[in-house]
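thread: overnight batch results

M.L. [08:02]
morning all. the overnight job finished for the chain we discussed friday. pasting input first so we're all looking at the same thing
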Amino acid sequence: MKKHLLIIFSLTISMFTASAQKFENWAQTPPMGWNSWNKFACNVNEDLIKQTADAMVASGMKDAGYEYIVIDDCWHGERDSLGFIHANPEHFPSGMKALIDYVHSKGLKFGIYSDAGWQTCGGKPGSRGREYQDAQTYASWGVDYLKYDWCNTEGLAAKGAYLTMRDALHEAGRPIVFSMCEWGTAKPWEWGQDIAHLWRTTGDIYNCFDCEYDHGDWSSFGVLQILDMQDGLRQYAGPGHWNDPDMMEVGNGMSVNEDRAHFSMWAMLAAPLIAGNDLISMSEETQAILTNKQVIAVNQDPLGIQGFKYQTKDSVETWFKPLENGEWAICFLNRSKTDQNIEFDWSKENVQDELNKLSPDFTQKVYQWSDLWNTKSKGTTKKKLKAVLPAHDVLMLRLKMN
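M.L. [08:03]
and the structure it wrote out:
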């Protein structure tokens, strides 16, 4: 009898394990949206979220492909007597369900934030020990995306903690894109593909192009520092499972050149394009960068191949990204504070994507190129490329067969 019970128990566990999974066929291209943290931190309320949703539509961002409105930390109120979490009634008097319904009415999707620990990074109730309960709550509200942080997680193993929330989301039954925010500490790219749709590869980004901000026992990093930390990770990215170098700082205080370079490199990395600025009052320059459909198309290419650094000459890096239909994106990045002359003789360059066994083979093929930031600038690979590249800026081209 005991033997039979043991077999039944083992089969039950096996069936449960086999059925638990992340939601497949979601995030087949890098997610695009907006997150409240970079600009507003804990200063969030329902009016801000509604106005941001309105601005995403009015600015043309929705038409350009952005779809998620993600509220980050500090939306939380308290748990009730049964342990269910509620939104802060002072800041969200209509309740989270009504707010999400509003976002959905704009043709957008809604994302929410929690933490694998007892408390969030902002000291609000975390999901530790309440994973299934919180997942059911999010599903009942109509949540479409969950950013799941890693503060106050002493004693937890990252893979196990994220597996628990993945399974909880799956059991709740509503398809939710799962974003792991573990900061890359436990190398989530090595084990995250079956758990989440995207995973943070670094600590937090900071609104500068080339710096490190020391907070004492941790640091946040500028665009170039975050970019350098992506080295060696491209093999782990692809449709449904993305490396996430953190939300963008476009529009949060850098120069237009730096914002343009930041956006371009995130596109080359096949990174999630999650804006982090104030959409309600952004400048025309910021809006133009965030809605550049040609650059977005590079990011959203169906192949889902993360770009790679081909070479570095002085302070100028050259990056390539394979695209569908045999096309390629190339991006020259000037890391220096002074203008740089660039010269690229296509016929003498042997560009190889060893990971995917792809090459543009400029000795055998002629490509037409178009400048993705200056659409009037065009040419072919028959002629050597020469340009002056401004400080902290990019030249980004798309190559098509002639």
